UniProtKB/TrEMBL annotation:
InterPro entries reported for this sequence: ACOT13, HotDog_dom_sf, PAAI_dom, Thioestr_dom
A Pfam family of this chain: 4HBT
Family: Belongs to the thioesterase PaaI family.
Annotated protein name in UniProt: Thioesterase domain-containing protein
Organism listed in the record: Lithohypha guttulata
Listed SUPFAM superfamilies: Thioesterase/thiol ester dehydrase-isomerase
Positions of the Thioesterase domain: 72-150
Keyword Hydrolase: yes
Length: 168
């Protein structure tokens, strides 16, 4: 990748459509040869199915490496999925001077309602509920394709302002 590439993870290119911003973020996690983080193999499983302002929807099939010994989606894998994907909901409402410099998890509350067996196709819905200058509040959920709710997340994030070029 070229050195002048947009760092979609920390510094989104706001001139892109909201769908292309979201795709660029996932690309930054999945396809950057200089990044092979914990979230990379899990993020490679998701397919974007819907983008609207404040909301993204995804689909994936639960793979064996995402599961615990009981062959159900591991709680940590579910959290990793929703942690990454709730950020995409914020990207859909970012604009110059607002949510344009990134954000980090402040608190995550997970609720596991039912097991998700290996091989299950799931839908993940992520919503930006509220966002301000310093904090953002998102929700995420994992449900089966027939609408059974399996996992919910409440995700609060600290907003990181984009650095300015001004001298102090």
């Amino acid at each position: 990748m070229s050195s002048n590439k947009c760092d979609a993870y920390n510094n989104p290119m706001l001139s892109l459509s909201i769908e292309d911003r979201v795709k660029a973020l996932v690309h930054a996690i999945c396809d950057d040869p200089d990044y092979t983080g914990y979230d990379t193999p899990i993020a490679r499983q998701v397919v974007l199915t819907s983008v609207t302002p404040g909301r993204t929807e995804w689909e994936a099939t639960v793979q064996p490496f995402m599961c615990n010994k009981s062959k159900n989606l591991h709680g940590g894998a579910a959290c990793t999925l929703l942690d990454n994907l709730t950020s995409t909901a914020l990207l859909t409402i970012a604009r110059e001077g607002f949510l344009d410099g990134g954000h980090v998890s402040r608190t995550i509350t997970m609720t596991y309602l039912r097991p998700v067996p290996v091989g299950t196709k799931v839908r993940m819905v992520c919503t930006a509920v509220s966002a301000g200058k310093r904090l953002a509040h998102c929700t995420g959920q994992i449900e089966t394709m027939d609408g059974k709710l399996c996992v919910t997340m409440v995700h609060d994030k600290a907003v990181i302002p984009r650095p300015t070029n001004s001298k102090l």
